[in-house]
Amino acid sequence: MAQDASDGEDWRRRRREAADAHAAAAERARRRDVAQARELLGGFVAEVRRRGIDPQPLQATAQGRRYRTGLTGWYLRRDGSLGVGEDGAYYVLGVQPSLAARLRGVHLEPADPPLQVGRGARDGEAIDLQDLIARRLDDLGDLDA
């Protein structure tokens, strides 16, 4: 009987160690992806500056209403749902509606940028960050041209 209990504890320990190792590997991969995405965003900021495209105030949205954020940068999506600050920080610009936010604006914290924007969304809404940046640069054009 004692042997059965020991075997069970050993199995649980091995499973816990395996789960911990899997979680650690997933976290390392996530950090690597975030670092790569930040590099892409830094390249986007450098390119829009090279093209002479000035940053603009970024506004958050909720149910069709716009809210001041105090941030300046460039929108990554035409619909204004994602933005990049002048420092390359990534912002999700959707917020919950509130009267206080209408009066005072909203405070947004930068988010970790994904390599694939919209992953898990409806079909056709996910796009690689690199492709989204390329599309946005095409939309923005070149002021020097």
Give the helix/strand layout:
Blueprint: H1 2-50, E1 56-62, E2 65-75, E3 82-85, E4 90-92, H2 99-104, E5 116-117, E6 127-128, H3 129-140
Antiparallel strand pairs: 1-2, 2-3, 3-4, 5-6
Strand neighbour order, sheet with most strands: 1-2-3-4
Mean pLDDT, all residues:
89
- The shape is elongated
* Count of alpha/pi helices: 3
Top keywords for this entry?
single chain, 145 residues, alpha+beta, 4-stranded antiparallel β-sheet, two-stranded antiparallel sheet, elongated
A few lines on this structure:
With 145 residues, this protein is an alpha+beta fold. The protein has helices at 2-50, 99-104, 129-140, and strands at residues 56-62, 65-75, 82-85, 90-92, 116-117, 127-128. Helix content is 46%, strand content 20%.
Structural overview:
The protein is α+β, with helices and mostly antiparallel strands and 145 residues long. It has one domain. It is built from three helices and six strands; from the N terminus they run αββββαββα. The strands form two sheets. Strands 1-2-3-4 form a four-stranded antiparallel beta sheet. A two-stranded antiparallel sheet has the order 5-6. A hairpin with a 6-residue loop joins β2 and β3. The radius of gyration is 22 Å and the shape is elongated. The N and C termini lie far apart (82 Å). The relative contact order is 0.15. The mean pLDDT is 89.
